[in-house]
Design a protein that fits this description.
The complex is a heterodimer of chains A (about 350) and B (about 575). By secondary structure, chain A is of the alpha+beta class. Chain A contains nine helices and 20 strands. In chain A, the strands form four sheets. Chain A has a six-stranded mixed sheet with strand order 7-8-9-3-10-11, sandwiched between helices. Chain A has a five-stranded antiparallel sheet with strand order 2-1-4-5-6, covered by helices on one side. Chain B has 25 helices and no strands. Chain B has about 575 residues and is mainly α. In chain B, about 50% of the residues are buried. The chains are: A alpha+beta (about 350), B mainly alpha (about 575).
Chain lengths: ~350, ~575
């Protein structure tokens, strides 16, 4: 098995750490997504894997090859790693035609003209751009350019494909199609893929596993289901799936599972926590907007709130409800009348974390 | 896993490189540049501290040269003259340049486009030609001076003075100030800044004064520094205009001591070169201090945004008349004077033109073996130097901007170091180097030695064209090449260089024109058989062959004009644009 392993990887710029001691293993054939807001270090991590940026500490190995190791001062340049990279800007060479863009890697590998032609045709066929071989990048639409960039990255059949926000320059509709299409190609070729995005929908839809990153660190690593359903950190809960975040007070707990917290106005909420231990004092309660009900539910906490303004979003309404000086966002089929009212929270939907360090 | 329809391509290993190819290339570029920049500088330093010419046997270390330099009253006077001359040159150049940039770039003055073109002429021609034009028309026995003297009964002015020199040098350097201000500020300033000032109630002139002018400060500082350097090192203007009045500047002093004197005092020449370099170096240092937060790559390139035009109102035509007359008198008439002089045996308002019309000057010009050799040599040297200079510039720029070569900063500093070395001294340094450094010895006696001097002297100029062009190319493009298997050398060769083609062509043409008109660098490198046009023209002046010189100058004007027009028509390359 050819595994990619990052050990203690750190990239420092002056005193700032763009990535801070990351440990990660990518399995063969896996589609792994690095997800996080801008500045979280996801692109720096990708550049470090590609060899485009030299980390300051740690090591990167691929199978039995050491790509980077700060201790032995090993650093393989990108051309010696041979990974396919799709850039956010696509980075198509404007002076070369589509087929020359795609064929560059084969030329550099001294592959004969006939074989080269065949492989370029196959790659372009795969991205459905066969008839565009003679065009120049400037003559293509954004979506077509993105596909050329992909063809260029996979034509030499790299053992690892690195994608840096490849869909972020496409419009919303095209992005949806490209997502499905990209995933299909990846599955078809069985390519190990690392994908960088800040779009949670993309991450959830495409990934085998997601790495949630913040401030240069890995916050949580898991399958999309795990990340969504069982966030281990208030940041994963709020960044993915649009959860409310409320400062609360809670007591000591000594195991993960049920617990009780108190809002600032004294109302108590039955909740659960994924953390093995919580200490008394300030804690964080997260609740997803669509898990808040305006009708009584069995085994749920009833809370008195003040309903505020609503906005119409087509297939649902979003409404604000004030409780204990915090504005909760609710996703509702039908808005509630403005003024005092009640909401219900099932305890398994109310997730409590310890205070953030 | 892969389904049956999946493409059949198989994994391909990345190409293998001997790992250090990129490093080797980068070191090679570094060493070439370092050798080229240091080889001429070090011998000059050595010459300062020894008691006889470098090439003489048995020299000993001494401080006598420095002592002589510091204690010489004559050199003190020369330094002051040089300073005063340079200062007034800069003031004239900046006033005309800034005024032109505002009038031509920002107002609705009629004929501004044509005036902008005419203003550029002095930049394409050498100081030598420009000084000649002024002498022919406005010199003590010049055509126009004679005409006025005849009417008024006395010479109205004396061109052979510091003031005269400053006017000629100021006008010929005005285009540089104009270009910097036009592209650095007037054109590239976001016109919404000015519109914003208008909306809060400022009138057009207030906008100019409070918004546009302050934004021009970096351009003014930079062009002033460059013009000061050029004024300090210019030779032909003081040589033509000041020598007859027995005024010396540092450059004419160097020329006199190093070339014309029967027994050159090399120690003193080297020491005063050092003085000149210090003067120039401190100017550029001050400029850097003043512009610490300014843009890094000051260029004569700009965005083609369309700024709002200020209406001059009733002043439109008077301004156009004033500015047009200024250009006509200071630029068009002197150049026309040269051409007229080339086709006459004698130019005077007292003698009707048709009596003196002749082709004799050209017959003499083309009748001389050494003149013809100067022409072919110059073209040959200019072609080789422009090509080598462009290649070196792009190599240096790519290492500095697109590699993680450890000494990139040092390389850049080295490459820009000729800025502080006046052309005359570069020639002198190459001459010394060829005398004492064995590997450069084989360059003696062939054009190679002049090529070396030219390539070194113009490296900053070429970098000024190439570096901004590299900045325009996204880093992702060469990074992408690396990811598909190109090492640094291949990424540069396959991606960067093809994308830089227009800039390389621009650099080549700029250098070619520059070398064609150059006279100063080759002065110390001339030898029988190694004539170049500029230096030949200088000796024609010294010998008093003004007719032949005017013919030569006319030929050079035609060559430069044809070249620039061809470049514009064939390659769509506009130099300085």
């Amino acid at each position: 098995m050819t595994k990619l392993t990052l050990t203690n990887l750190t990239r420092q710029y002056g005193t700032a750490k763009a990535i801070d001691g990351i440990n990660l293993t990518v399995e063969e054939g896996e589609f792994l997504t690095l997800l996080g807001p801008s500045g979280c270090g996801k692109s720096t991590t990708l550049s470090a894997i590609a060899g485009l940026d030299r980390p300051t500490e740690g090591s990167i190995t691929f199978g039995d090859r050491i790509l980077f190791d700060s201790k032995s001062d090993t650093y393989l340049p990108p051309e010696a790693r041979g990974f396919g990279v799709v850039f956010q800007s696509y980075a198509l060479w404007p002076h070369l035609s589509v087929e020359d863009n795609v064929g560059m890697s084969l030329k550099l590998r001294k592959i004969g003209a006939a074989e080269r032609k065949k492989r370029i045709a196959e790659a372009l066929e795969l991205v459905e751009l066969g008839p565009f071989a003679k065009r120049y990048p400037g003559e293509l639409s954004g979506g077509q350019q993105q596909r050329v960039a992909l063809a260029r990255a996979i034509v030499f059949r790299p053992p690892l494909l690195l994608l840096d926000e490849p869909l972020s320059n496409l419009d919303a509709q095209l992005r949806q199609q490209a997502r499905v299409w990209l995933k299909e190609i990846q599955r078809e070729l069985g390519l190990t893929t690392i994908y960088v995005t800040h779009d949670q929908d993309e991450a959830l839809a495409m990934s085998d596993r997601i790495v949630v990153m913040r401030k240069g660190k890995v916050v949580q690593l898991g399958t999309p289901e795990q990340i969504y359903a069982a966030p281990e950190h208030p940041f994963s809960a709020t960044f993915i799936g649009n959860a409310n975040r409320i400062e609360v007070n809670g007591g000591n707990t000594h195991a993960s599972g049920e617990c009780v917290v108190m809002l600032n106005d004294g109302q108590q909420v039955k909740a659960i926590t994924p953390e093995p231990q919580l200490s008394q004092g300030q804690q964080i309660l997260t609740v997803r907007t669509h898990k808040i009900s305006c009708e009584p539910l069995p085994d749920a906490t009833e809370l008195a709130v003040n309903f505020g303004a609503e906005s119409y979003l087509g297939n649902h309404y979003e409404q604000v409800a004030k409780v204990a000086d915090t504005a909760l966002r609710l996703t509702l089929d039908k808005p509630m009348p403005v003024g005092p009212g009640k909401i219900w929270l099932r305890h398994e939907d109310a997730i409590v974390f310890g205070p953030e360090q | 896993m892969a389904d049956v329809n999946a493409p059949s391509f198989t994994p391909t290993a990345p190409p293998r490189f001997s790992f250090n190819r990129a490093k080797a290339a980068q070191w090679f570029i570094f060493l070439i540049t370092a050798a080229l920049m240091l080889a001429p500088a070090l011998p000059i330093l050595l010459q300062v501290f020894i008691d006889r010419p470098l090439y003489a046997e048995g020299w000993e270390f001494t401080f006598a040269n420095l002592v002589e330099l510091v204690s010489s009253e004559e050199i003190g006077r020369i330094a002051v003259t040089t300073g005063v001359f340079a200062l007034f040159t800069v003031i004239i150049a900046e006033v005309v340049g800034i005024g032109a940039a505002l009038l031509i770039g920002r107002t609705d003055m009629p004929g501004r486009k044509l005036m902008g073109d005419v203003l550029m002429w002095p930049l394409y021609l050498s100081h030598l030609i420009f000084a000649l034009g002024w002498v022919v028309i406005y010199g003590p026995s010049g055509f126009f001076t004679q005409f006025i003297a005849q009417q008024a009964g006395g010479a109205p002015w004396n061109l052979y003075s510091i003031a005269g020199m400053a006017v000629v040098a100021g006008i010929s350097q005005a285009p540089l100030a104009y270009l910097y201000c036009l592209y650095g500020a007037v054109r590239s300033v976001d016109s919404t800044l000015e519109s914003a000032a208008r909306t809060v109630g400022a009138g057009p002139l207030q906008v100019l004064r409070t918004v546009t002018l302050p934004l021009m400060v970096p351009s003014i500082v930079t062009s002033s520094a460059l013009n000061l350097v050029i004024a300090v090192e210019t030779l032909s203007i003081p040589l033509f205009l000041a020598r007859p009045a027995r005024i010396d500047t540092l450059s004419t002093f160097l020329y006199g001591e190093g070339i014309s004197a029967a027994e050159p005092n090399h120690g003193l020449v080297a020491a005063s070169s050092l003085l000149l370099m210090l003067l120039v170096g401190s100017t550029l240092f001050v400029q850097r201090l003043l512009l610490q937060n300014g843009h890094r790559y000051e260029t004569v390139k700009g965005k083609g945004s369309r700024p709002m035009l200020l209406s001059l109102g009733k002043l439109r035509w008077p301004m156009a008349f004033f500015f047009g007359t200024l250009l006509f008198v200071t630029v068009v008439v002197p150049i026309a004077g040269i051409i007229l002089r080339a086709f006459t045996s004698f130019l005077s308002p007292l003698v009707p033109l048709n009596k003196v019309m002749t082709l004799n000057n050209f017959q003499v010009l083309f009748g001389s073996e050494s003149n013809l050799r100067a022409i072919t040599n110059t073209v040959e040297i200019a072609l080789i130097s422009a090509a080598l200079g462009t290649i070196l510039a792009v190599a240096v720029a790519l290492v500095v901007q697109r590699s993680n070569f450890r000494f990139g900063g040092t390389l850049e500093a080295l490459a820009y170091s000729p800025r502080v070395v006046p052309g005359l001294i570069i020639g002198l340094g190459v001459f010394y180097a060829a005398v004492i450094l064995p590997p450069m010895g084989w360059l003696r006696g062939n054009i190679g030695i002049i090529v070396v001097g030219y390539v070194m002297a113009t490296l900053p100029l070429a970098l000024g064209v190439v570096q901004p062009a590299i900045v325009q190319i996204s880093r992702d493009l060469d990074r992408a090449a690396r990811t598909v298997g190109a090492d640094w050398v291949n990424a540069m060769r396959l991606i960067m260089i093809p994308l830089l083609k227009p800039a390389l062509l621009g650099s080549f043409i700029l250098l070619f024109v520059f070398h064609l008109k150059s006279y100063i660098i080759a002065i110390f490198l001339m030898a029988p058989g190694l004539e170049v046009m500029g230096v030949t023209m200088l000796s024609l002046w010294t010998n008093g062959d003004v007719g032949e010189l005017a013919a030569f100058a006319t030929l050079q004007i035609v060559m430069v004009a044809v070249l620039l027009i061809l470049a514009r028509v064939l390659f769509k390359v506009k130099i300085y644009d």
